Amino acid sequence: MAQSTLPEQSEKYAQKLSLLRNNLSSVIRGKSESIDMMIVALLSSGSVLMEDVPGTGKTTLAKALARSLDVPFNRVQFTPDLLPTDILGSSIYNPVDGTFHFREGPIFCNILLADEINRASPRTQSALLEAMSESQATIEGVRYLLPSPFFVLATQNPVDFHGTYPLPEAQLDRFLIHLQLGYPDTDHEIEILFAQSTEHPVDHLERVLNHEEVVQMQDQVKTVHVEQSVARYMIDLVNATRNDARLKLGVSPRGSLMLFRAAQAIAFLKGRNYVLPDDVQHMADYVLAHRLILTSKAKYSSITKMDVVSDIVQKVKVPN
Question: PANTHER family recorded for this chain (predicted)?
């Protein structure tokens, strides 16, 4: 019985994901790869960090994804005076009965948009660490479980912009995917002008996935088969970052786990129930690069983290 219903279920997932793609593509033109990476992160139960100059559509893409899902969504505008309690919540004194009552912060939702996250102080940024890695928050000594699925969409301006703080390495490591949208090409930018000439298309998006369907697809992604040789290939890539002379810090075991799950998700998105080395290579730049720390010599030589990952992918032997 289970085998007979599986193809129908898979077709249902494919149709839903196609609708989600169409929704996002109607708002963000010419960024199909970035849209796929957003969906991969959703399927992987991971979080996304979008970094680019202001005005390239980072917040719009995050809002479009949130509006396409029938799940609770909160947005926090990060500012220098934002406090951890503004995100997590705090106890409020009730003078009527003389007791304290906990008031949940915006983190208690399924999708949290952390807008311009690097404009808040490192102390406030760190308020998300436990939530992103364990889907829970410890507040005033009490542990609170967050709703499932829990998904952080964070945007940030380049760290050399005025009024920004660099994200600590521990927080960068908790993001599954790092995206840079970039400017649209001329034709797509003309489409954007006319699409938003009277109203914003994000205001008319329909919800195409509900909470149960998101959880079901996330569970299905975990069943995508990964051959032992492909898993070893992932570890070979990770080990290469740990032994590269251009790097002070390579990819952590958490990064290995996230690469594994992202490869499963991209295979699922492509309609396969098994992972190929091509899937691992496809996801390597998005999952590994932001976890690396270059040596001073490499920085002065104008070497980028993406350059290092590309070199490693070319050098590490691919399994047959």
Answer: METHANOL DEHYDROGENASE REGULATOR, MOXR FAMILY PROTEIN
